[in-house]
Write the structure tokens for this entry.
Amino acid sequence: MLIVESLSYQYQESEKFFLKNINFRVEKGETLAIIGESGSGKSTLIRLIYGLLDYNHKMQKIEWNGVLLKGPSYNLIPGHSMMKYVAQDFDLIDFVSVGENVGYYISNFDLPKKHQIIDQALEAVEMQAYKAVHPKYLSGGQRQRVAIARALALRPELLLLDEPFSNIDQHLKIKIRERIYAFCKEHKMSLIFTTHDLSDAFYSSDQILVLKDGQIVQIGAVKNVRNFPKSAYVAQLFGYVALIPKEKAAALMIDAENDLVIYPEEVVLDDASDIYGTVTKVHYQGRDYICTMEVDEVEILFYSETEILPNQYLPIKIINYRTIE
């Protein structure tokens, strides 16, 4: 289990705190996604966990299975042996093959076993066909996958990935993130990864930790965070959403003491409704349309399976909403 308590961090040359009072736990075999905008502190947090940065371990705590983890000032080689960290620069060796990169830190004592491990790791990121190729001939996304495979091959207790899917094409990303997630589950590896793309977190994690300006604004199961966002910032991370000030909620026939969050799937067309609005925008997105409607100066979003033309005056029903502070 990873335990992080009261963790704060500021670079020596700066008065600004990049992390403030961070507290969370990750159980064995669990996956945690850290999501936030650029500059929110995501990369700094996993670098602290891996031991690349020093922190005040007398007042704060980063602990793995009961052992207090310290920074580079207390370790001859920065980092912790039970963990592997894949940074955004990949750090591959260009003059040896992909297979040799993946197996670089694996003992040659049992070569058949070593090659089996290499093949399994490459399969997890769909790079088996490039085993004999040198990394210098690969694209950025392919290099990223090789770096992840090298970490998977070592089967660490905790795997730390910094923006692991940022260079991977969309059509491959969905399949690869599922394979990585399954690999970690199969080998009982805990996984922490950072991302600014909520779809990565939504489909590939047990918990989500939302960072803003170096502080945790919400943490929990992905479903719970989406269904019960604590702020407009969190709600907007999930894509399309209507944020309704409490003063305007009456336009939707809702008596609210706080601001409202309404997702598009919670708004339906209903001829029996007394709430009418004018469609202002319609965008096709493959399987359906995302429609924007104005109801008494209140902007609402909803999905439609059939095309709706702008300027139509239609009745809607709000089937669910939640309040935020």
Remarks:
- The mean pLDDT is 94.
- The chain has two domains: 2-235, 240-324.
